[in-house]
Amino acid sequence: MTLQRCLFQASKQYSSRHILKANIRQSFCELRYKYSSNPDKKFSDRHEWVLVEKDIGTVGISKYAQESLGDVVFAQLPDPGMTLKAGDECGALESVKAASEIYSPVSGTVTEKNKEVEKKPGLINSSCYDKGWLFKLKLSKPEQLHDLMNEEQYETFLKTDVEKDHT
Amino acid sequence: MGVINIPRRVLISKKVLLAAIQARKFSDAGSAKKTALYGLHEKHGGKLVDFAGFLLPVQYSDMSVSSSHLFTRNSASIFDVSHMLQTNVHGKDCISWFESICPVDLRGMPDGSSSLTVFLNDKGGIIDDLIVTRVKENQLYIVSNAGRLEVDRQHMLETSELYRKNNKDVTVDFWDVTQRGLIAVQGPKAVRNLQNLTDVPLEDLVFMTSRVGSVAGVECRITRCGYTGEDGVEISIPADKTTAVTEALLQSGEVKLAGLGARDSLRLEAGLCLYGNDIDERVTPVEANLTWLIAKRRRGEANFPGADIILRQIKEGVSKRRVGIRMESGAPARKGAILKNKDGEIIGNVTSGCPSPSLGGNVAMGYVREQYKKAATELIVNIRNKDAFCTVAKMPFVPSKYYIKK
Questions:
Q1: B chain contacts of residue A94, beta-carbon cutoff 8 Å
Q2: Using DSSP, how many helices (H) and how many strands (E) does chain A show?
Q3: Whose CA is closest to B244, among B37, B401, B42, B89?
Q4: What class is the A2-165 domain?
Q5: What single-letter DSSP state applies at residue B112?
Q6: CA distance B352 to chain A (A)
Q7: Strands laid side by side in the A83-84 sheet
Q8: How far is it, in rounded angstroms, from Cα B32 to Cα B52?
Q9: Recorded GO terms, molecular function (chain B) (predicted)?
Q10: Do B1 and A167 touch (CB under 8 A)?
Q11: What is the dihedral of CA B300, B306, B312, B315, to 10 degrees?
């Protein structure tokens, strides 16, 4: 649903005038720089990212999510061996002001959790795309990756759907 | 990633927020109001949320909630509390009227002194908690919660109306957010920064006293009180001058703006109740561990609402009690978490909680069965289906620094 909506919006934008296109492209570039991450990462509409190498996916939260949450002081992560379906609640991050559940963006079996993050949850704020990863899982349905957003789509989603959803 | 505790508006962008506000200008009911400091919040990058119908900052762009919390404990912060209901009462019978709805001993208080008290219903349940100042024998100034604004207004209007019908002299006037601002200046460096801007000798203004004086050239009411456990004041200011007075206080780098996020964690560490979470109409002051609010003289007179129930509870005890809960580590227990004894039997629940920036670990408060209320009692708290150990702890968790004359 979400993806379709944002593709529709993207296509609308591309059919607009050149000058608008240029502006959008420029802002995408700025955003990509600002939220700098690997273009191969896939994002969920709940602000998790997953980066897949072979059949192992590494999961974390986006810069936007990290900023909304504030200083993370406690991370509850899924234990290795846990079997997860895409969308399953599998942990939580706590800041002074709020608790946020972690949802797995894809189905699979947890192979590892980031013990450094359990010890130093602040890594999620200082390095959400690198040292602040949360857990790894062996994907059972790799085709689910197609349901997720690439970075450009996610940035569009942030600029449109998130704003609308929270109005 | 689902943000569950946080008001959804936190995630809103400024652009949409502005559009929403534009739209709201033309609708009346249910629209969030701006306080006199709205422009200042925007200027300082406040993340604005609709809090009890007012647009207020959770935090500002320069600091995280925990940094702002610690800055308040080490230096000083200004909180916009203009959303709170400020009420002025006049008339020679104002004290007897007020004592007919609260268990406070206003008659025994000197002019210019303030007290925490509660509006009570007929069952002794807490309608709201508030600070009342006896300005003079025939004048009161009241500050109560924004979340209870309409309830409080109705309660004061109806009870005073009944009083007037008996030929008593009492009139109740409310300050609207467009008329009056209210800021809390809190922290160890709050008073010395305020002293630079006021002719009021603040060494004489002890905790829970109040007086009118000039601040940065503006006539304000200064009350030595707050909601952080720190020394500090609340300053009531004409709305059109609130920004100027606040900016004057911000001139010194020792004072910064702080939002609702830090306000909540500070009050929790100070063991202070949040209405709607820790107290409401279903609990009495005795159950809420606020028995000290029932003044000695009033216990003898037994003429406040719910006196029969409350006095019986004081004498015979209650089945549940509000306590502090401390966890040295792990996930914080938040509102709604179930408390169990060591046998796994449910004995209470958490009413508010958060990580403690000052102490590390977590602090919370909640209600437990009477036999578990003693400090150091070990309990189990269930957080997201996982059991964790916690301990009943004395409050305040962080020692209060109120300016009390020795």
A1: 331-332, 355
A2: 7, 9
A3: B37
A4: mainly beta
A5: T
A6: 11
A7: A42-43, A48-53, A56-61, A135-139, A108-113, A83-84
A8: 8
A9: aminomethyltransferase activity; transaminase activity
A10: no
A11: -50
Nearest to A76 among B64, B331, B334 (CB): B331
Nearest CA in chain B to A91: B384
Contact A61 B1 (CB under 8 A): yes
Domain at B85-175: CATH code: 3.30.70.1400
**By three-state DSSP, how is residue B222 classified?**
strand
B209 token code pair: 């006293």
* SS3 label, residue B123: coil
**Overall CATH class of domain B8-83+178-269:** alpha beta
A166/B16 Cβ within 8 A: yes
The answer to whether A110 contacts chain B (CB < 8 Å) is: no
Partners of residue B355 in chain A, C-beta under 8 Å: 73-74, 94-96
Residues 6 or more apart whose Cβ sits within 8 Å of residue B315: none
A103 touches chain B (CB under 8 A): yes
Which of A63, A57, A55, A89 has the alpha carbon at shortest distance from A151? A63
Out of 3.40.309.10, 2.40.30.110, 3.90.180.10, 3.40.50.720, the CATH code matching B319-393 is: 2.40.30.110
pLDDT (average), residues B100-118: 98
CB B270 within 8 A of CB B227: yes
Specify the pLDDT at position B2. Answer: 55
Q: Report the C-alpha gap between A137 and A58 in whole angstroms.
A: 7
Residue B378's CB: how many other CB atoms inside 10 A? 11
- H or E stretch at B382: strand B378-383
CA gap B119, B344 in Å, rounded? 37
- Give residue limits of the domains in chain B: 8-83+178-269, 85-175, 319-393
Phi, psi angles (nearest 5°) of residue B95: -70, -45
Known binding positions of B for substrate? 234
Note the pLDDT of residue A40.
85
Report percent pLDDT > 70 for chain B: 92
